[in-house]
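Re: folding output
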Amino acid sequence: MSPSTASLKDGEVLAGGKVAPLRWLGAKVSKAADRLRSLATTAARSVRSLVSSAVDRVRAEVRSPVRLAKSVFMATIGKDRGFGFWWLMAMVAIAVAIGLLVAVLLSPVIGIVAALVVGIWMLIRRSRSARSRDTAMAGLAS
């Protein structure tokens, strides 16, 4: 067998005398992809187990303080939520609504005011730099 006509598999030669080792290349690529897939799967499993154990530890640490805060809150308001509790909830809801409304209405206004301030500052800065250039030119001329 000459170097120009190598066979793929027991005498498989393409037309024109050129050998296309596509099956060999495909097998190598497939093996490499399988190895890469298995490595990625192993890495993903290890990362998943690490994240899961970290979440479990955090959950175990946070669960008891949250339960304690809930029990204290429930002990203060009791099972019977009276007029004071609902009055407080209504006031909190109204305060949140007013706060959101003010934030939504003032944000564009604050943006416009900031743009005006920056524009005025740029105009003042430009006029000062023009005056300072004129002063510098007058100093060089004399």
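--- second protein (sequence, then structure) ---
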Amino acid sequence: MLFTAASAIALVACGVDRSDQGATDCASVVSYMEPVLTITAVHDSGGRPVPQVEVVRYRRDGVPMLQQLRFDIEQGTSWSPERDTATFDAGLHSGLSLHGDGRVTCTVPCAFGSNPGTVDLGVVAQDGQRSARSLEVHHRGRRPGCGGALNDGTDVDLVLDRPRT
């Protein structure tokens, strides 16, 4: 199932108290100051840093999202700290690359989208070491204003397991 950018935009209504002008309402788009999930470090089973892994599983709330991730990367949308905010999920991926054979790689650090929930994430290193994690991801902060901007996403460090022989 593919999601459009419009499906990732959340509209909220905010009441504004302006006693001198009467109460007014506004509808705003919630924006995002950073991705909801960032892989900040990956280490192999011996504790050595791993600079790049392949993303082999990415599910959000039980829904497979790896194909959508490929589509987003292919569209060339990505996030960087220099951007103030983004208003759609695809605009919040970074450090991810799509290869001609369909593989998605993460050059650490890498980041995934804006939607909170339970993420099942699987990665594999070039030498076959793997990590599979289920994570509750969300933004922990919000910049004020009608609609506001969410920030302070979930950061994770992954430790790879030795390949089974």
